[in-house]
Design a protein that fits this description.
The chain is α+β, with helices and mostly antiparallel strands. The protein contains nine helices and 16 strands. The strands form four sheets. A five-stranded antiparallel β-sheet has the order 9-10-11-12-13. A four-stranded antiparallel β-sheet has the order 1-2-3-6, with no helix packed on it.
């Protein structure tokens, strides 16, 4: 029992800390953000709360290093308690990097004086940040991303779990030649077309709902730029019709079959049209992460079995394990081939050669568009796109997934549409 006390106490402190910290969204209310023409970045505002959380975690988990070693001979599983101080080390690194980033770039701002972001309109703004001018012609680029997120909050008796799922994203790369340097702050121009069917901001403070976030990242000597701003989107225009197909699907400039080949996607002519081949294990980092998560769940099942948990818990965990193992196998070994031509799409998805084929007629397809089918969580997370056919009977068919680059996915969708004569 003594070895479990620090762990239980750590959980209580973690719950308390999570209620007072976060990603910065709770540092201003939704009404404040809607009224502002300058929106403050979250990094500098988060430094204090990150340090409070880090100190609390390490203070509570430190006793584990004292209580656990004597228990190891009698109870080897007590070694799991060392996970808490290990997490504490990671938190300390996170706090130090965030502090260094805040000190280097200072207070950052998003200037929205050009107008509020609205569905169906072009939105212009400027990120104001302390950036070094290109030194001796050593240019760099700032990648800006506008993301629509759905924040959900699930609560239990003593804690809450917050998730931010990516619903839509557009991004652009701003070369340093386009950045205005002068005075204390550099001005990074931002322009995005907000879709006509975009969801308006509904999340207030740290509440659940829809929120829009602009992130700015740049690889620089020393500490990299990594900042985020919450952008209010409001005021749907009267008479504006929602659309389900992005016009960008018709053209994705700058994409070549050589770019796609570097990501494991092959596009080449075939006897009956154009062949699109999606190789297995194309997203190594994502597959590795899911594999690690699966290993944790399999370990949890073994632990439940070892400790004699009731059968109900073991069965539920076992079902989750089977689903995760299926996903892992598909990520590492699954391949998709699409042949588009003569008014049909022939689709085959297989794992180690075993799979099924399907033929779709152009006359039965309503549209070919994009869908985010998997993602890493949060505003800095990465969405992975799926090209899919929406059939006139309401069903959908996957034509290739796990595409990390949105421009690549748009290009593939446009080529498939053109290959079967679908407008």
């Amino acid at each position: 029992m003594h070895s479990l006390a620090p762990i239980l106490l750590a959980k209580q402190f973690l719950t308390m800390a999570l209620e007072t910290t976060g990603d910065g969204a709770g540092l201003k209310t939704g009404s404040d953000a809607l009224a502002a023409t300058r929106i403050a970045g979250n990094t500098r505002a988060n430094v204090k709360s990150i340090w409070v959380f880090t100190v609390l975690w390490n203070a509570v988990s430190a006793p584990v290093l004292v209580y656990i070693p004597p228990e190891l001979v009698r109870q080897p599983l007590a070694a799991l308690g060392f996970l808490f101080p290990a997490v504490g080390v990671g938190l300390l690194v996170w706090a130090l990097v965030t502090t260094a980033r805040a000190r280097r770039f200072g207070q950052t701002w998003l200037d929205t004086s050009a107008g509020t972001a609205q569905p169906g309109r072009a939105w212009r703004a400027a990120v104001l940040v302390r950036l070094p001018p290109p030194d001796g012609g050593a240019a760099y680029a700032v990648r800006v991303k506008l993301t629509c997120l759905n924040r959900t909050i699930s609560r239990s008796s003593d804690d809450s779990n917050e998730r931010e799922n990516i619903l839509w994203r557009e991004e652009a790369e701003i070369d340093s030649a386009r950045i205005s340097f002068g005075g204390d702050l550099a001005s990074i121009p931002v322009r995005f077309d907000i879709p006509g069917d975009a969801l308006e901001t509904t999340a207030v403070g740290k509440g659940a709902g829809i929120l829009w976030v602009l992130t700015a990242e740049a690889a620089l000597p020393g500490v990299n730029l990594k900042e985020d701003f919450e952008v209010p989107v409001e005021g749907r225009r009267e008479g504006l019709q929602p659309r389900t197909t992005d016009p960008a699907l018709h053209a994705a400039p700058g994409v070549t079959i050589y770019d796609l080949a570097q990501t494991g996607i092959t596009v080449e002519p075939s006897d009956t049209g154009t062949l699109f081949a999606f190789a297995p294990a194309r997203n190594l980092s994502f597959a590795t992460g899911v594999t690690a998560l699966t290993a944790v769940f399999v370990g949890a099942l073994w632990l439940q079995w070892f400790l004699g948990f009731p059968w109900f818990f073991r069965i539920v965990t076992g079902v989750v394990d089977l689903l995760l193992v299926h996903v892992v196998i598909d990520l590492w070994l699954g391949a998709t081939v699409v042949i588009a031509g003569n008014g049909t799409l022939r689709v085959r998805h297989a794992v180690l050669g075993a799979g099924r084929s399907r033929t779709l007629r152009a006359a039965d397809i309503a549209s070919i568009d994009l869908h985010i089918n998997m993602q890493t969580q949060g505003r800095f997370g990465t969405p992975y796109y799926e090209v899919r056919a929406r059939l006139k009977n309401g069903r959908v068919a996957s034509l290739g997934d796990g595409i990390r680059n949105k421009r690549h996915a748009e290009w593939l969708a446009a080529q498939m549409r053109a290959s079967i004569g679908l407008k």
